[in-house]
Fold this sequence. Notes:
Elements: H1 2-6, H2 10-18, H3 28-33, H4 38-42, H5 47-56, H6 65-82, H7 84-88, H8 92-97, H9 107-121, H10 128-134, E1 143-148, E2 151-157, H11 168-184, E3 188-196, H12 201-209, E4 215-219, H13 220-232, H14 252-260
Parallel strand pairs: 2-3, 3-4
Antiparallel strand pairs: 1-2
Amino acid sequence: xxxxxxxxxxxxxxxxxxxxxxxxxxxxxxxxxxxxxxxxxxxxxxxxxxxxxxxxxxxxxxxxxxxxxxxxxxxxxxxxxxxxxxxxxxxxxxxxxxxxxxxxxxxxxxxxxxxxxxxxxxxxxxxxxxxxxxxxxxxxxxxxxxxxxxxxxxxxxxxxxxxxxxxxxxxxxxxxxxxxxxxxxxxxxxxxxxxxxxxxxxxxxxxxxxxxxxxxxxxxxxxxxxxxxxxxxxxxxxxxxxxxxxxxxxxxxxxxxxxxx
Length: 261
């Protein structure tokens, strides 16, 4: 994280302020797990160090510097979202050409973070606290949407280098384990959802024939289209999650039509 490069003492400040036990805590996924937002971090930093960070990162220093920093990184998030599908397909060269410098080993985590961000923008209750509570050393759910009344949607994110995600047996075992985990904690899984850039025809067929797992599939491009359609909708403040319950391979055009009525 860039803040740590400019302000090496910040890691210890955050550990102390939020009573965190890990040695290095300045990691976006780690902080998100604890619902610690960028503004929470920036509010810990002295005015002098904020000014230093703005200077080193070529961020506008006139006016409210904290807001300037947040705006700067909001633009960066928009750039990542514009390349959401490229990140899912692990198109490292295309990302570099589009101005995104990221380690190839970080693409999976970034895809998961962006998926989470899109679901939050849809108004869904992405429950990080519950996810941490449910997860074990062996079984680690990517995303939990809390529907209330002890009902959940469990989401798994996958990136691929080639067209058509095709590892059905592997991912079905994984999601069945997550379902069992939720049941042991007295939660009902209303839907399991797998989000990836693409799925092979064989994978979709295997999913249709599976009688144990109530699994739906959504491509990265479909999620982006649904988000863009939702932004234009005046009917809903929160995305109606029941629209995700009907299809095996989610049809974004049908959903956009439904929320646009």
